[in-house]
Amino acid sequence: MSQAPAAPAPGASRILVVKLGALGDFVQALGPFAAIRQHHRDAQVTLLTGPAFADFAAASPYFDAVWVDDRPRFWDVGGWLRLRRRLIDGAFDRVYDLQTSDRSGAYFRLLGPGRRPEWSGIASGCSHPHANPRRDLMHTVERQAEQLRMAGIAAVSAPDLSWARADVSRFRLRPPYVLLVPGGSLHRPEKRWPATHYAGLCATLAASGQQPVLLGTESEKPMIQAILRDCPPGLDLAGETSLADIAILARGAKAAIGNDTGPMHLIAAAGCRALVLFSSASDPALCAPRGADVTVLRGESLGELPPAEVWEWLTPRA
């Protein structure tokens, strides 16, 4: 069980962690978050993140403060100046840039000229660079662990979500239930298993006495309602779950099946038995969810991945 941070002592060092998103990347940073907290146990540790993750991060035991990044547009001079002032006023002694993007690199440059804090990342001129030219060929988990080792943090454990709390009784679940995540990025349809296949899977689950519980965003609700149209026992939770809800739902689920999308990372990290469907559009060696019991099923095109293969994975423990 992770412990809440103690109140920082007066004059404690100030640490900033930068992790803006997306959800899968944020989940895979939970282990590094814990390692940073452990390494700087007496420090004031602040997270700079996106609004979608602020409440979840604030409930974790890793941070004394959570800042929401307003992500100023490149032409928003006033926004950049306000961000610069906030970062400077934070008086940080060290920054762990776990985003390592062009945007977070720009934040490093904002802190100049003059003395900058120690900085772990890939920004040119930073004090603790992740100096591996093959870093982009590493899985996110190993890449971040190596980055922290180069900054003096030797051990990074798997994510621990034992601290997450949520009351999911309002969903009126009927165990045993199986979580399904049929959505994903709108601009990457090639990463979605066909909705008709999910509909068939829902019907098969219901016929075997297992409740299909579908997760997604509010914008995915029409798709999920169509999937469940002929499956009355199914439960549509699109747009109704927080990140903590998903973690707790995953703890109680018999299994989870979904596309290569953010919620599957959270479900897997919570310890749920998970099957993640990949097409050739993304490489599981670089970005697959990690957890205690994760299987990847991959096809050149997800439209050609037959439902029978998915059901075969589920039935040995059905």
Short description:
With 318 residues, the protein is an alpha/beta fold.
Secondary structure topology:
Blueprint: E1 14-18, H1 23-28, H2 30-39, E2 44-49, H3 54-59, E3 65-68, H4 77-89, E4 94-97, H5 102-110, E5 118-121, E6 128-129, H6 140-150, E7 177-181, H7 195-207, E8 211-214, H8 221-227, E9 235-236, H9 243-252, E10 255-259, H10 262-269, E11 274-278, H11 284-287, E12 294-298, H12 307-314
Parallel strand pairs: 1-2, 1-4, 2-3, 4-5, 5-6, 7-8, 7-10, 8-9, 10-11, 11-12
Count of spatially separate domains:
2
Report strand order across the widest sheet.
3-2-1-4-5-6
Poorly predicted ranges = none
> What is the C-alpha radius of gyration, as a whole number of Å?
21 Å
State the end-to-end distance.
Answer: 30 Å
CATH architecture of the largest domain: 3-Layer(aba) Sandwich
The CATH class of the largest domain: Alpha Beta
Number of E-type strands: 12
Q: Write the H/E string, N to C.
A: EHHEHEHEHEEHEHEHEHEHEHEH
Mean pLDDT: 94
Helical content band: 25-40%
CATH fold annotation of the largest domain: Rossmann fold
The profile of the biggest β sheet is:
6 strands, parallel
Looking at CATH, the homologous superfamily of the largest domain is: Glycogen Phosphorylase B
Report the portion of residues in β strands.
Answer: 15-25%
Structural class: alpha/beta
* Global morphology: elongated
